[in-house]
């Protein structure tokens, strides 16, 4: 599986361009490192670290290719679209309408999840806030990225992602004395438990277009390095975060609200964790909010002001109605929506390479991907989607 980068390859090896690639990768990295990572410690505790890390490594590679495939689709296609628009363009109006529905509900649900978790983390680090004010404050901060867009997001995520990595490293160092409490092997009773959780934690296709827009704004050729860098460090971050959390829980199963129980006996870690979660939810909410706004404007043809209003109001109202149902919400988002969108991206990539519609635009890079691997991808994600649908209806 090779990358063909075209004639511009010899011109990209300059410091400013690599700086642009690094900053652009933070857009994708900040989206990947979202609400899903906070479910990983509990799942890895139940399955054992060996099984959990196997899922993490395999899905890290698979999702990296999915991000690159989607980037190639965008680069090959004229006009500005989101996933639903590309689907309608290549796969037909009916499939496009289905994707529009899943995009609206999936991204709205993700924004609600970020609003719920972000408010909890804000309450953790500022406990003296009046009741409900943490929700209003996080909502107001989240609206900044939605209104001002990709420029402020790229700059802010470079800071917040670095901040998050420093906090996780500090957690890991403080947990080293409890290294013997880690459980690497367990009797496997739920072998597919990590599927939806890990997939949701590593997929970030909503930010792929934002990466491309940022690089074009900087007049920098779009290269795979930005997407590969983001995927590699997301896997590394998840792995270190899981180990650090399990070390601090000292052999006890972590809760979904990872940092809450730690406050009573590790107040510094509780505060750092709250800051980590707050920064994580905020920059992810900015990126997803911008993507959701783009879906409404570009694919549903909603007026820009109405799209901004909806992107702002849905997280606040949704968090009110779904408070206490976060685990249920994350299960649906990870097990159903992510798997379905990956399947769509796979067929979009295949169709975009074959279609005459895309011939008017030469991509900055193209993937050389054997047909056998493509159908293995389809079979894997298709079977996973069916499994999660059956599991949810049981």
Describe the secondary-structure layout:
Blueprint: E1 2-4, H1 15-32, H2 40-47, H3 49-76, H4 83-91, H5 93-125, H6 133-148, H7 150-175, H8 193-202, H9 208-217, H10 225-249, H11 267-299, H12 304-321, H13 326-354, E2 366-368, H14 371-393
Antiparallel strand pairs: 1-2
Helix pairs in contact: 1-7, 1-9, 1-10, 1-11, 2-3, 2-8, 2-10, 3-8, 3-10, 3-13, 4-5, 4-13, 5-6, 5-11, 5-12, 5-13, 6-11, 6-12, 7-10, 7-11, 8-13, 11-12, 13-14
Descriptive report:
This protein has 14 helices and 2 strands; from the N terminus they run βαααααααααααααβα. The chain has a two-stranded antiparallel ribbon. Helix 3 (49-76) packs across helix 13. Helix content is 73%, strand content 2%. The chain has 394 residues and is an all-alpha fold. Residues 5-14 have low confidence and may be disordered. The protein has helices at residues 15-32, 40-47, 49-76, 83-91, 93-125, 133-148, 150-175, 193-202, 208-217, 225-249, 267-299, 304-321, 326-354, 371-393; strands spanning 2-4, 366-368.
Outline of this structure?
This protein is 73% helix and 2% strand. It is mainly alpha-helical. The longest helix is centred in the N-terminal third of the chain and has 33 residues, at 93-125.
């Amino acid at each position: 599986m090779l990358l063909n980068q075209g004639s511009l390859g010899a011109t990209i090896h300059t410091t400013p361009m690599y700086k642009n690639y690094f900053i652009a990768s933070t857009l994708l990295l900040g989206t990947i490192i979202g609400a899903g990572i906070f479910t990983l410690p509990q799942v890895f505790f139940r399955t054992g670290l060996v099984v959990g890390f196997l899922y993490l490594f395999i899905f890290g590679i698979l999702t990296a290719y999915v991000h690159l495939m989607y980037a190639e689709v965008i680069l090959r296609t004229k006009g500005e679209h989101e996933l639903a628009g590309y689907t309608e363009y290549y796969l037909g109006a009916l499939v496009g309408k289905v994707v529009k529905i899943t995009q609206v509900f999936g991204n709205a649900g993700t924004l609600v999840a970020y609003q719920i978790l972000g408010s909890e983390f804000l309450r953790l680090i500022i406990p003296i806030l009046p009741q409900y004010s943490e929700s209003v404050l996080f909502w107001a901060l989240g609206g900044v990225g939605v209104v001002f867009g990709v420029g402020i997001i790229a700059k802010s995520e470079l800071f917040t992602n670095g901040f998050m990595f420093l906090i996780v490293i500090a957690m890991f160092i403080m947990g080293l004395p409890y290294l013997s409490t880690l459980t690497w092997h367990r009797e496997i009773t739920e072998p597919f438990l990590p599927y939806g959780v890990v997939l949701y934690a590593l997929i970030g296709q909503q930010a792929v277009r934002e990466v491309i827009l940022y690089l074009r704004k900087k007049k920098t050729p779009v290269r795979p390095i930005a997407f590969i860098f983001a995927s590699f460090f997301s896997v590394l971050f998840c792995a270190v975060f899981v180990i650090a959390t399990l070390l601090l829980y000292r052999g006890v199963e972590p809760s979904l609200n990872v940092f809450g129980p730690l406050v009573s006996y590790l107040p510094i870690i509780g505060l750092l964790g709250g800051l980590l979660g707050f920064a994580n939810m905020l920059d992810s909410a900015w990126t997803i909010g911008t993507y959701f706004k783009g879906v409404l404007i570009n694919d549903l043809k909603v007026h820009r002001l109405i799209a901004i209003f909806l992107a702002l109001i849905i997280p606040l109202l949704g968090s009110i109605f779904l408070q206490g149902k976060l685990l249920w919400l994350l299960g649906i988002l990870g097990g159903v929506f992510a798997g379905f969108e990956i399947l769509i991206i796979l067929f979009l990539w295949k169709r975009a390479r074959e279609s005459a519609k895309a011939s008017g635009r030469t991509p900055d890079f193209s993937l050389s991907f054997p047909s056998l691997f493509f159908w293995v991808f389809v079979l894997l994600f298709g079977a996973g989607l069916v499994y999660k649908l059956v599991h949810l209806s049981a």
